[in-house]
Amino acid sequence: MTTYTERSWTxxxxxxxxADITQDYATMLDLFNASVTRxxxxxxxxxxxxxxxxxxxxxxxDALAVALIDNGFAAGDMLGVYAQNNPAFVISxxxxxxxxxxxxAINPMNxxxxxxxxxxxxxxxxxxxxxxLYESVAKEVIxxxxxxxxxxxxxxxxxxxxxxxxxxxxGVERLRPEGTLDLKEIFSRYDGRKPAPVDPGSDDLAVLCYxxxxxxxxxxxxxxxxxxxxxxxxxxxxxxxxxxxxVLGVAPLFHITGLIGHVGIALLAACPLVxxxxxxxxxxxxxxxxxxxxxxxxxxxxxxxxxxxxGVTKQDWxxxxxxxxxxxxxxxxxxxxxxxxxxxxxxNIYGLTETNSPSHAVPxxxxxxxxxxxxxxxxxxxxxxxxxxxxxxxGKELPVGEVGEFVTSGPQxxxxxxxxxxxxxxxxxxxxxxxxxxxFMDEDGWFYLVDRKKDMINAAGYKVWPREVxxxxxxxxxxxxxxxxxxxxxxxxxxxxxxxxxxxxxxVTEQEMIEFCKQQMAAYKYPRSIQFVDDLPKTATGKILRRxxxxxxx
Length: 554
Prior knowledge:
single chain; 17 helices; 23% strand
């Protein structure tokens, strides 16, 4: 029987592109060490006017690893990393590996409740975070004593650069929180010291990335050294990376796209990673003009924002060799408009946290077809060494053209979820990922996403699970019942809308309710609109019918 992957490769790659790759590196630490040995003087990070070479990363990560070990960090421990797109993020990943442990990538938008859950669930014993995040969030979480964190290291977004762009850093001063270690002081104190060599295996945990399960409870996706190294090499070989390339870091580094499509490929190719603390369109355009990157991958909303800025011309984009976009659906008209404004074609890419970024991608130089029936733009074909099947509700493989769930297996698929064997058994039976996304494959081997199987909301590439938002809403004293759905949004793809019924006699405004949610969750999660209703639609057994609420917005 011809598999979906075999059909895709036979139809599309009969002219020279191999259907599989052989890994050069089994672990992320091997990958990094090889790049340092091969190209120590190559620029690794450009952060405003600051520059770090591969050798600099090596020395700084050595120092941090020794400091961690001196303060009780042991083999198998986890280092929580609570940062924006700063050089310290990259340094801390490598340091955790050199110290014999792993990193926990934490969204810097997380508030107290979310941070406390991830630190507690992961069992992280150390935390590296921005100084202002420590003062505003982490300090209170650590003080509760609910986590295992016993080492806290802080740093400033002003570190490793002197430009201090007023658009991002107006009024920002370097803090020195009491009771924490300072990363800058660590670099000075431990300069030149090296940790004892470690030799992690490809199956050892490298980074714990939190995603949400079908119940809304966050799950720690176990990205191993092997899964991360494989897809870093997928980017290299699929996009034709060399040391002459440079990566514009528009995706958050804590997100799987940033981890693999920015950090992983830059460390592997020993080429510059251009980062700017956080996404601000004007700052990013200035970085493009100054540093002339050749590659990036990010959510389509990023490219809509950048290409729509006043004064931006095709010349500004002329350094780019290729651009990919994933994380949120792309309308064909958007790719057309982007090409008109920039002269560049946006290649589609598709994957999940559980696949360490891509499982599908549009081949370099190819134009993705549009399904004539649904109008959907193809997400590409399975990448190297990857098998994707489409199955029905009973698990039976479906023929070409029929819509079903994508199930994926390959070297990039995680082995499971941290301390959640039931969720692992449900979502990864026999190591094959049940993605929860539904779509089909055409006769030429192109894959198309049609819908999502679950209730997940995709807001500009960020996953939002309704139950998590509902749990916060139910914490308001005026709320009797609540239900959350995704509604169409021209800019974000989808945005969060809540339906709320109030307790008898209670009064609250929409804005007051939004502010209540805003204070308790990351910015992309809180509802942008709230509709008050007398009663929510329910089944005979009392289960709220989200599908009817979604239908009312169509």
